Amino acid sequence: MTTAIPPADNGIVQSRIASLPLWKGNISVALLKGGISNESYVVEDNAGKYVVRFGTDYPFHHVFRAREAMTARAAHRAGFAPELFHAEDGVMVTAFLGAKTWDADDVRANIPRVAKLIRQFHTSMPQHILGPGFMFWVFHVIRDYARTLEAGKSRFVSKLPSYLAIAEEMETVQKPLPIIFSHNDLLPANILDDGERLWLIDFEYAGFSTAMFDLAGLASNAGLSTAESQTLLESYFGGLPDPDLQRSHAAMQCASLLREAMWSMVSELHLNAPGVDYAAYTAENLLRLDQALESYRAVYG
């Protein structure tokens, strides 16, 4: 069963936005481009601007909106995220910051700055999280995605044993690190810059983990070179990373890309977003995974 994501210019969606109980006066609505699993709009009323995002629970992706809303509120209290004004019935309304959305070039040009942001998020968020804790461990996610793909008779079923073998290989070399609270979806576009400070958005996958997935995910998503990745590790850990830490990071980049490819494979089965080609996104990430594996094995065997 696929989950349809509300299309832009849909009259029902427009009416649903208008019916939300928080607007002051008339509103204007415009589609906010970006994102491949949710539909978002910028809404302006007499009091200000807001982002309205539609998104239901996606159990196949371990995404539950009540937990996301709790995390978004915690991130706002901790000073990392815009204020959340409304969250129910598959709709979230947050403050519109009018900030620049980062791309890969911005990450590469600001590695120490973003490393500081990530470390502050990791270490301060646990004091603000409420209720049961959620653990994000990418290797569990990959194993569970494999079960979902097999049950859904994905076109990739024959490849699952090789994907699970890669995950096991990369999990084995992970260096033990302290448990922190991580974002787990550090695409450059989830970092905003208002000219004075950086913000984080989109907490669908946030949970307790180690720092390595965020560091590796950011490196792979921004296309950091080996030297840039080392700068990221040095900036985050406050010193030259030892060989085991560097290997963990390189291995986790492979795991991050495998998880992203399998995320897309699962999305092929379960999501239907207007204008999104999940098959092409799967192919793109499998190619990047092959490149990362080739690089990893050239160094570590």
Explain what the structure shows.
This protein is α+β, with helices and mostly antiparallel strands and 301 residues long. The chain folds into 2 domains: 3-95, Phosphorylase Kinase, domain 1 (2-Layer Sandwich); 100-300, Alpha-Beta Complex (Aminoglycoside 3'-phosphotransferase, Chain: A, domain 2), CATH 3.90.1200. It has 10 helices and 12 strands. A 5-stranded antiparallel sheet has the order 2-3-4-6-5, with helices on one face. Strands 7-9-10 form a 3-stranded antiparallel sheet, with no helix packed on it. The longest helix is centred in the last third of the chain and has 28 residues, at 243-270. Residues 4-9 have low confidence and may be disordered.
Distance between the termini: 41 Å
Q: Give the quaternary arrangement of the chains.
A: single chain
Any idea of the CATH class of the largest domain? Answer: Alpha Beta
Report on the biggest sheet.
5 strands, antiparallel
Shape-level CATH architecture of the largest domain: Alpha-Beta Complex
Q: How many alpha or pi helices?
A: 10
CATH superfamily of the largest domain: Aminoglycoside phosphotransferase (APH), C-terminal lobe
Order of helices and strands: EHEEEHEEEHHHHEEEEHHHEH
Q: What fraction of the residues are assigned to beta strands by DSSP? A: 5-15%
The pLDDT mean sits at 93
Low-confidence stretches: 4-9
Major β-sheet strand ordering: 2-3-4-6-5
Task: Enter the CATH topology name of the largest domain.
Answer: Aminoglycoside 3'-phosphotransferase, Chain: A, domain 2
Helical/strand content category: alpha+beta
Number of domains: 2
